[in-house]
Design brief:
about 180 residues, mainly alpha
Length: about 180
């Protein structure tokens, strides 16, 4: 969680700065882009809510991390506006898929009597990572140019934790919390 939250919130904190400073897009364009990306994320969130019980959640996290990392790589690599819009939306959708899948996945890993305490501690420790991720992303952004900063944000911040959950995580598909607690 520390790595995952650090990567997700680090990305969220610096994506608009990257578009404004490195790509010189206007504030109006960035706002419109963020609104369209949020609409796409809402649609993905709705689909995830409708089909989440039928799909193994630990794999939706991996899919979200891959979309996040691939989208970020595309945002960085392309210089045409239509391609940037597409990759930005893909990265934002990946972030949404990863984050909301994680919020649903975590409580199922704790027995019923410890669920709220375990989820609270996991989320709290994850937010320590978010705090660190937002602070470190700016340093990484400037120090690891031109392409290294993307790798330093997306690999430890999204791909590594999602891969670990996909490999070692508990299967939760079509199981109730009571079944998972056994």
């Amino acid at each position: 969680m520390v790595l995952g939250y650090g990567g997700v919130y680090g990305y969220a904190g610096y994506r608009f700065l990257f578009l404004a400073e490195s790509r010189h897009y206007s504030a109006g364009f960035i706002f419109a882009l963020a609104a369209w990306a949020a609409a796409a994320s809402a649609a993905v969130y709705l689909l995830n809510a409708l089909f989440g019980g039928r799909i193994e959640r630990k794999y939706t996290q991996l899919a979200g991390a891959i979309l996040f990392a691939g989208g970020w790589l595309g945002v960085y690599a392309v210089h045409s506006t239509p391609a940037l819009v597409a990759f930005f939306v893909v990265a934002t959708v990946g972030t949404t898929l990863w984050q909301f899948s994680m919020w649903v996945y975590i409580p199922g890993n704790y027995p019923t009597r410890m669920r709220s305490l375990g989820t609270g501690w996991t989320d709290g420790v994850g937010h320590v990572g978010a705090w660190g991720g937002v602070l470190l992303s700016g340093v990484v952004f400037t120090a690891a140019a031109p392409l290294g900063w993307i790798l330093l944000i997306t690999i430890p911040g999204a791909l590594l934790p999602a891969s670990m959950v996909a490999i070692f995580g508990k299967r939760q598909r079509r199981r109730t919390l009571e079944e998972l607690a056994r």
